[in-house]
Amino acid sequence: MSCPHSCSTTEENLKVVKVEAKDVRFPTSLQSDGSDAMHTDPDYSCAYVTVTLKSGLQGHGLTFTNGRGTEIVVQAVNSLSYLLVGQVVTDIYKDFAKFWRSVTSESQIRWVGPEKGVTHLATAALINALWDLWGKLLKKPVWRLLADLEPEVLLSVIDFRYITNVITKEEALSLLKQGQVGKEQRIKTLQSTGYPCYTTQAGWLGYPDEKIRELAQKYIDLGYTVFKVKVGRNLEDDIKRCELIRNIIGYERTLMVDANQVWEVQEAIDWMKHLARFKPLWIEEPTSPDDVLGHAEIAKALKPYGIAVATGEMCCNRVLFKQFLQAEALEYCQIDSARIGGINEILSVYLMAKKLGVKVCPHAGGVGLCEMVQHLQMWDFVALSGTSEGRVVEFVDQQHEHFVNPCIIKNAHYTAPTAPGYSTTMKPESIAAYEYPNGSEWQSMFAKGIFHDPRK
């Protein structure tokens, strides 16, 4: 296939000369930001990747992590980077699916995957950097880059291996062609009104009641109508927290709850029956993220109570998503921009969800996740599903100040990005301050005894 877009730069200048990965961590555990029943002391972090061309142009990608272990993902990026260095980047875009498979099926490294865990997180960071670079080369935000690609070209970035029993290339092409109808009008609508979001900001499990009250009221005043709270540690506390939230937001607004994988299957069913009186739209991650049949059992048992199952933020690849969709084990599909192998694989999940009639409501909130998923859901709106009805994107107001082009929320809607790329470029001063363990902020916290210095 010929290059889908012309680039004025010479081939030599388009060669990848360097791939660099950094361990960047923020001390969010100090305020219990991000805390839930499973992850009680998160330090929101990322493995941050920079891909540099000979011309000097850089693409940035990342994968969200939770503190300890980020260094393992960084090492995995370093181990995979040889596949990219020396390549002419436009040659990758000509057959992106082939390159994606070369990374995920690297003949030796795949043994410690395959297509899951640390190696797949590293894959996501690399692939996200390449999409950021593609957007910058074409001077387009990634959502618009995706929307402008002809259906046949968009299809060429996806590896359909292992999912053709649910969706074939021909079926996917048909869905993408259908998505072209009315696309330009939807782009105008998106640019005018943005895409709806919900907030988890008032719902972290470690927050005291007064902070929950304050934040819930703040986000009501900002126009939010959809809220999510964390549950799962103690039933009595969950009842009190849901009652507290409902007293503030009322029943005219939507409430969801999230257990972050802590329950057994029957425990999830029994627990949620106690919370059913608070009328949650969904229970998110009620049990192990790998338990397809367990989720299906929970979904079936809770359906008479009007409670749906949402999951996917820790779904490790398109094959597991396929099985969740086949088994009717989720009603809301929560893709994560960095958990599976970057945009290429995420597109396949959107296509399967579209075919099977399941709404996609992306997970976000961690470092850079809001910045990335906005592009994906906006592409879905303008070029695939054609609607935002019954769909929302998570928003958490943390760490956005560290990005050059942070996501912008107005009236509880993500505004359509205009800057070229994937919104993944971090400010140099933020990296200098929070790179672990040598950043200036970490040096200061080590000196004060707030955190242990791992080098000692």
Concise account of the structure shown:
With 456 residues, the chain is α/β, with parallel strands linked by helices. It is built from 17 helices and 13 strands.
Q: For the terminal residues, how far apart are their CA atoms?
A: 54 Å
On the 0-100 scale, what is the average pLDDT? Answer: 96
Derived structural class: alpha/beta
Unreliable segments (pLDDT under 50, ≥5 consecutive)?
none
Catalytic activity: L-fuconate = 2-dehydro-3-deoxy-L-fuconate + H2O
Enzyme class: lyase
EC number: 4.2.1.68
Domain Mandelate racemase/muconate lactonizing enzyme C-terminal: 209-305
Structure description:
There is one protein chain. The protein has 456 residues and is an alpha/beta fold. Among the domains are: 253 residues, TIM Barrel; 29 residues, no CATH class. It contains 17 helices and 13 strands. The protein has a six-stranded parallel beta sheet, covered by helices on one side. A four-stranded mixed beta sheet has the order 11-4-13-12, with helices on one face. Strands 1-2-3 form a three-stranded antiparallel beta sheet. A hairpin with a 4-residue loop joins strand 2 and strand 3. Helix 1 crosses helix 4. This is Mitochondrial enolase superfamily member 1. Its cofactor is Mg(2+).
Please render the helix and strand layout as text.
Layout: E1 16-25, E2 45-53, E3 58-65, H1 70-80, H2 89-94, H3 96-104, H4 117-138, H5 142-148, H6 151-155, H7 169-178, H8 183-193, E4 195-199, H9 209-221, E5 226-230, H10 235-249, E6 254-258, H11 265-275, E7 282-284, H12 292-302, E8 308-311, H13 318-326, E9 332-333, H14 342-356, E10 359-360, H15 369-383, E11 393-395, E12 409-410, E13 413-414, H16 428-434, H17 440-448
Parallel strand pairs: 4-11, 5-6, 6-7, 7-8, 8-9, 9-10
Antiparallel strand pairs: 1-2, 2-3, 4-13, 12-13
